[in-house]
Structures are given as structure tokens and as C-alpha cells.
Amino acid sequence: MGKFSVVGLKVVLALILAGTLFVQLFMIPMILIHEAPENGTDKFYQASFLGYLFVAGLIIETCVYCVWKLATRVKRGTVFDPASLGFVTPIIIAFAIGSVATLALGVIFAASTEIAPGAVLLVGGAGLLMIGISIIVLVLRQLLEQAAMTQAQAAELRDELGGVI
């Protein structure tokens, strides 16, 4: 990954973080203040959705932080260090939690007669997509672990070769 790629990635991550914080700190409270549902059922659906948005924001912020740290390690050339695995695991956990939260929101929405079945299906599909992303990142973590071991073995062999020469 070149210098411009890392800088471009960090710009995108900063924009994502800013947008997520804006939603969490301003949009959700504004909705709570200005949109007061009249009956208890609507309040429950609104609270579920806003709670989901807040949890989704925490998940996005966790992933942004971890990807930022990994991009920094790429820039320094230390990404194949076993310490990098500590930044991949939270991404896997965050996506797993996100998929559970998304599927739970789908179940809550499915109980409503006012929410279209297609919307419930889309929410369920998003939950399945997040499970898939979690599994893909798990596989990538295993590849990173193998690459880190290979690099450590190569460094050990270089040291042994240097001692022989």
C-alpha cells in the first residue's frame, strides 16, 4: 500500500468517524426531542431503532479505530507483526455484535404490522451480510497470522544465515 493509499484511507476513515459522531451526538438526540410518538408501540419501535443506531455507531467507531491503527502499521511496514492481530480481533467481534443487533432489530420490526415485510427482509439481509463480513475478516485474520509467522521464520533464517557467513 503506497503513501497516497494510506492517506486516502485515513481521510475516508476520518469522514466516516465524523459522520458517525454527528449522528450519535446530534441526530439521535434531535429525533428524541422533536419526534414524540403518540402511542406506546411506536415509542418502542422508535427506541429500538434509535438504540440500534447508537450501537451501530459504536461498532463503526471501533472498526474505524482498528483500521486506522492497521493502516498506520502498513505505512510503517510493521503490519506483519503479531501485535497487528490485536487490531483485527475487535473488528470481528464488532461485526458479530452488529449482526446480532441487526437481526434483533429485524425480529422487533417483524412483530409490527405497520412495518413492511420487505423492510424486515432488508434488515434481516443486512444482518446476514454482517455475519458474512465477520467470517471474511476472520479468514483474513488467519492469513495475517500466517504471514506474521512466515515473516518471523524468514527473519530467523536470515539471522542464522548471517551467523554462518
Automatic annotation (TrEMBL):
It holds the Pfam family DUF2975. Keywords: Membrane, Transmembrane, Transmembrane helix. The chain crosses the membrane at residues 12-32, 52-71, 83-109, 115-140. Coiled coil: none annotated. This is DUF2975 domain-containing protein. It comes from Glutamicibacter mishrai.
